[in-house]
Specification:
The structure is a single chain. It contains 10 helices and 9 strands. The chain has 254 residues and is an alpha/beta fold.
Length: 254
């Protein structure tokens, strides 16, 4: 018998020292909740506070969010920590430096209602463009098309999330890719696929490019792809600094 759950959606936001970006995201979440056909009270918001030393947790509570305290500095653990408190049928994950589309929850609902989709993501629009950012984007688009995987707001049912064991906590990066790989495998057994909900793209922060330069990710790609095939618990100084440096985590995808 299916467990009765209190909400339709649980939106989970991992956050480490995100006092500068979290209010901006939550403003767009409020709009998307108000726009949702199922009603604003059908969506809960959970912030995974990952050992923040600023006012991230206080901001989350003041805005009515549930706060999951996670001390381990591993993004997969933070996402799972938020999911552990979720009371919704559908889990949705978004990084704290993004902003979501007003139709996010309606668009996800419509895709899931077809019965043909196991999970998916909304994709992102970018805050700004440059030659280096455009080259990076162009290098990654073929992989997105080929694998039908994307970033932005990632979603799946709570039952399927539990069936695959959630995010792989051995991984310090690429955990979002692994999640979609696992969900795609699960869906294939049922004749379901991953979906790209491009009508409700999130707005992606460019703070990594602002910090490291507009060409930095283009040169990193060629080193990161082989790293995905190393033992999942592998982490080196470059990965630790880029994804876990204080205040500079940001989105994993450009």
């Amino acid at each position: 018998m299916r467990e009765h759950r209190q909400y339709r959606f649980s939106l989970i936001i991992p956050a480490h020292n995100e006092e500068g970006y979290l209010p901006r995201l939550l403003g767009t979440v409020d709009t998307a909740r108000a726009t949702y056909r199922g009603g604003v009270d059908s969506i809960e918001v959970i912030v995974g506070d990952n050992a923040s030393t600023d006012s991230t947790a206080d901001i989350a509570r003041q805005r009515g969010c549930v706060v999951a305290q996670v001390t381990e500095r591993c993004i997969a653990s933070v996402r799972n920590g938020g999911a552990a408190l979720a009371r919704g049928d559908v889990l949705a994950f978004v990084d704290a430096d993004m902003r979501i589309h007003p139709e996010t929850f309606n668009a996800i609902e419509d895709r899931l209602a077809t019965g043909k989709v196991v999970a998916g993501a909304t994709g992102v629009r970018l805050e700004r463009w440059s030659l280096g950012i455009a080259a990076t984007y162009a290098a990654m688009v073929p992989w997105v098309w080929l694998l039908r995987m994307d970033t932005g707001v990632v979603f799946c049912s709570v039952e399927d999330f539990q069936a695959i064991g959630g995010y792989d906590e051995r991984r310090y990066f690429g955990e979002d890719v692994q999640l979609l790989v696992d969900l795609r495998r699960l869906g294939r057994e049922r004749g379901q696929r991953l979906a790209r909900v491009r009508s409700a793209k999130a707005l992606g922060s460019m703070r990594k490019f602002d910090h490291y330069g507009d060409w930095h990710y283009f040169t990193m790609i060629f080193g990161l792809v082989p790293a995905l095939f190393r033992p999942p618990e592998t982490i080196d100084d470059r990965i630790r600094e880029y994804w876990y440096g204080d205040g500079e985590r940001g989105s994993e995808e450009p």
